[in-house]
Structures are given as structure tokens and as C-alpha cells.
Amino acid sequence: MLESLEGQCQCGKVHYRVQGVCATVFVCHCLECQRQSASAFGMALWVNDAKVLLLSGELNQWLRATPSGQQMLCRFCHTCGTRLFHQIKGQNQLSIKPGTLNDSRQLKPVAHIWTSSKQDWVKIPENTLQYPENPPTFDALFMAWEAQHSAPDRSLILA
Ligand SMILES: [Zn+2]
Ligand SMILES: [Zn+2]
């Protein structure tokens, strides 16, 4: 289902709209995500066939090499630095930092990855997929998301 997601950075200069198909939402406990979020974990909302429309403001970007040798494009507000999007170069799948969405209440992560570096005090809810590092494939995460949103009244419509 094509969805329209809107969000903004912390200072409010950047407003964005993303159209695409939500594929999954998960929490990552890797040390990169802890440092990037300046917190205990990072969250990711993956959107397929994503079209990003910048409604206002200006983005900066930097490229990070991933452990698997790919290049990840990281985009953030030029003024306040809020991280908004990640994208592996050459892939059309966009990762939104979901805390920047105008309405993120519907977003319940279906999985926690890199639990091997999770902070001890973080308790993972039952019935949630868990992986010590990256999952071998993300198929289980896509299926769990689909199951969570298959009922029409629980579909994710944020705009
Ligand atoms: Zn900003
Ligand atoms: Zn991570």
C-alpha cells in the first residue's frame, strides 16, 4: 500500500514528505546506532520505492562505509543536524529515522537487531524478533510487519 509520511527535523527548518511502501520497522542496538542517536539504540522505518520530497529546508549528507563494504548515505538537517534518512547507495529502499515523523505512534518495531551490544537495562517486548547481529535476511522482518498491519483498521496511514 502506498503511504505518505511527513516529518521534520528538531529545529523545524526541514520538512519532508516521503511516498512509498512501508516494509518494516525495527530497533538496532549496534554501537554505530548508539553513537549516531547519542542514545541507547536507533530505530529504522524502511520504505520501498521511496520518493522524497523536501518541503522546506536544506539537507547535508555524508557517506559511511558499512561493515559489508557498502556505502551508506546519511542525510541530516543543515542547521540542527537531526538525522533524517539513511540509504545504501544503489538501493531504492530508504530508511527513515522514525522519531522525526509527525505521527510515529503507530510504529511498533517488529524486531530488535544487534542485541549482542544492547544495553542491559533495555527489555525487549515478548513476541518480538531478536537477532544478536544483523539478521541473515530481512524477510522475517518484512513478514512480521505485514502481519502486524494486515487488518485494515490497523494499517499505517500517517497522512
Ligand atoms: Zn533542523
Ligand atoms: Zn545499528
UniProtKB/TrEMBL annotation:
Q: Which Gene3D superfamilies match?
A: glutathione-dependent formaldehyde- activating enzyme (gfa) (3.90.1590.10)
Keyword list, A-Z: Lyase, Metal-binding, Zinc
Family statement drawn from the similarity comment of this UniProt entry: Belongs to the Gfa family.
**Entries under PANTHER family matching the protein:** CENP-V_GFA DOMAIN-CONTAINING PROTEIN, GFA DOMAIN-CONTAINING PROTEIN
Q: Which GO terms describe its molecular function?
A: carbon-sulfur lyase activity; metal ion binding
**What name is this protein filed under?**
Aldehyde-activating protein
Q: Does the keyword Acyltransferase apply?
A: no
Q: Which residues form the CENP-V/GFA domain?
A: 5-122
Q: Which domain of life is it from?
A: Bacteria
SUPFAM superfamilies, alphabetized: Mss4-like
Entry-linked InterPro entries: CENP-V/GFA, Mss4-like_sf
Q: Which organism was this protein described from?
A: Undibacterium parvum
